[in-house]
C-alpha cells in the first residue's frame, strides 16, 4: 500500500503580494516566466515533473546574477486569469499572488521587494495566518539511499509511491497543488493556521484517494529533499554565494530563457548559452559509523570536498542533516574511480547523479 509522510514546514513563510501591478512587477524580478501562472498552454513539458498552472518554481537574483533565494509562487482564489500590461488610462484589475520562501529571510526578502517597487501599484505583507505543509512519498526501494536514472528507467518508479493529483484545490482555507519542480516532491499544501495534522489529513482523505498518511517531523522532509537532490532555503542556497544554474534552476523548470529581461538575467543567459555549467548541487551521504546522528559541527557549509585519489578539489559542502546533505560539486570530474572525502574530517562521501538529470552531460 502506498505510504506518505505529511510534514508541517516550519522553516517556510508566505508573503502576499497584491495589487493591479503584480504581474509586471514580479515578471521583472524573478527568473521564471509568470505567464505560466496565467496561461497554462505556455508551460513547458518536463520529464519527472507535473505541469501545473497554480504554482511556479523560481528564483530571485541580485544585480550580479547571484541567488538571493528560491521561491514557490502560488495563485490564490483572488488571482486574475490573464496577464497583461495595462495601457495608459485603462482601468487596472486587482491581482494577488503568494510567495513561499525560507522563513529566515522572509523579512529581508519583503524589504528587498519593497525597494524595487518604485511606482508599481502593489502591496506586500508577511502572512501569519497560513501554514505550509508537504505531503510526499515514503520511499523504500530495497533500502537504497540513492535514487538514480537507472532506477526510474527500470520502471522501479512504481514502487516510489508517486503522489500527484489531477484536480488541484485553491480556496481560502486550504490550497493543495502538485510541487512543480519534481514529481517525487509530492504535494504542497497551504492551510489556515488553525488547522492541525488531523484537519489536514481529513481534508486530503475527503478530496483524494490517499489513506496511509503519517505525521513526520521537519527532519524527515529535509532528508527527503536531500535524497532527491533538491536545494531549498538559505542553507542550501546561501545568499549571494551561488548561481541559479548551479542550483539546477534550469533542470527544475525554475528559469526561463525566452521571457525577456529580469534582475540578474545577463549572467544567467550567458552561462546558459555557453552550454557549460561546471558545478551543480548534488546529493551526498556521509559514510560515518553513526549514520543516525553524525557530528554536525565539523561539516561546515563551504568546507572543501576533495578526491582522495589525487587530492584535487571537487567542490564544497552546502548542508548536512543526519548523514545526508547537498554539495556543490564539479560533476564532470566525479567518476566511478573518484573517492570524494570531506577534507577537514577525512569522512568519505558518496554522491550520485539524481534521476531527473537525464540531460546533463558528464
Automatic annotation (TrEMBL):
Membrane-crossing segments per the record: none
Coiled-coil segments: none
Pfam families xrefs: Beta-barrel_CAF17_C
Entry keywords, A to Z: Mitochondrion, Transferase, Transit peptide
Domain CAF17 C-terminal: 278-358
GO molecular function annotations of the record: transferase activity
Gene3D superfamilies in alphabetical order: Probable tRNA modification gtpase trme, domain 1
One record GO biological process: iron-sulfur cluster assembly
Cellular component GO terms held in the UniProt record: mitochondrial matrix
Subcellular location: Mitochondrion
Protein name: Putative transferase CAF17, mitochondrial
Annotated source species: Aceria tosichella
Lineage of the species this protein comes from: Eukaryota, Metazoa, Ecdysozoa, Arthropoda, Chelicerata
Gene this chain is encoded by: Iba57
Amino acid at each position: 500500500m502506498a505510504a506518505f509522510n505529511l510534514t508541517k514546514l516550519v522553516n517556510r513563510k508566505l508573503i502576499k503580494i497584491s495589487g493591479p501591478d503584480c504581474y509586471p512587477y514580479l515578471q521583472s524580478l524573478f527568473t521564471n516566466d509568470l505567464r505560466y501562472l496565467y496561461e497554462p498552454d505556455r508551460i513547458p513539458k518536463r520529464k519527472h515533473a507535473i505541469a501545473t498552472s497554480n504554482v511556479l518554481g523560481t528564483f530571485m537574483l541580485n544585480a550580479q546574477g547571484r541567488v538571493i533565494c528560491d521561491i514557490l509562487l502560488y495563485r490564490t482564489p483572488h488571482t486574475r486569469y490573464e496577464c497583461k500590461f495595462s495601457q495608459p488610462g485603462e482601468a487596472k484589475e486587482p491581482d494577488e499572488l503568494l510567495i513561499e520562501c525560507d522563513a529566515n529571510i522572509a523579512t529581508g526578502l519583503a524589504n528587498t521587494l519593497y525597494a524595487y517597487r518604485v511606482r508599481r501599484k502593489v502591496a506586500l505583507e508577511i502572512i501569519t495566518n497560513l501554514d505550509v505543509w508537504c505531503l510526499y512519498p515514503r520511499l523504500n526501494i530495497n533500502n537504497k539511499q540513492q535514487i538514480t536514472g537507472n532506477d526510474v528507467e527500470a520502471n522501479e518508479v512504481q514502487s516510489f509511491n508517486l503522489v500527484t493529483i489531477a484536480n488541484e484545490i485553491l480556496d481560502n482555507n486550504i490550497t493543495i497543488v502538485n510541487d512543480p519542480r519534481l514529481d517525487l516532491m509530492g504535494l504542497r499544501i497551504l492551510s489556515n493556521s488553525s488547522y492541525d495534522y488531523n484537519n489536514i489529513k481529513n481534508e486530503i482523505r475527503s478530496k483524494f484517494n490517499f489513506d496511509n498518511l503519517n505525521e513526520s517531523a521537519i527532519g524527515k522532509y529535509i532528508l527527503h529533499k536531500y535524497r532527491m537532490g533538491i536545494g531549498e532555503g538559505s542553507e542550501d542556497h546561501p545568499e549571494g554565494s551561488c548561481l541559479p544554474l548551479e542550483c539546477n534552476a534550469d533542470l527544475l523548470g525554475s528559469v526561463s530563457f525566452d521571457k525577456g529581461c529580469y534582475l540578474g538575467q545577463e549572467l544567467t543567459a550567458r552561462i546558459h548559452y555557453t552550454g557549460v555549467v561546471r558545478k551543480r548541487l548534488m546529493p551526498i551521504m556521509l559514510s560515518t559509523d553513526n549514520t543516525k546522528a553524525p557530528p554536525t559541527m565539523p561539516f561546515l557549509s563551504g568546507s572543501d570536498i576533495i578526491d582522495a585519489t589525487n587530492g584535487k578539489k571537487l567542490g564544497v559542502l552546502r548542508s548536512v542533516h543526519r548523514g545526508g546533505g547537498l554539495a556543490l560539486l564539479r560533476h564532470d570530474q566525479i567518476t566511478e574511480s573518484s573517492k570524494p572525502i570531506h577534507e577537514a574530517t577525512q569522512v568519505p562521501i558518496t554522491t550520485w547523479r539524481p534521476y531527473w538529470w537525464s540531460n546533463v552531460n558528464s
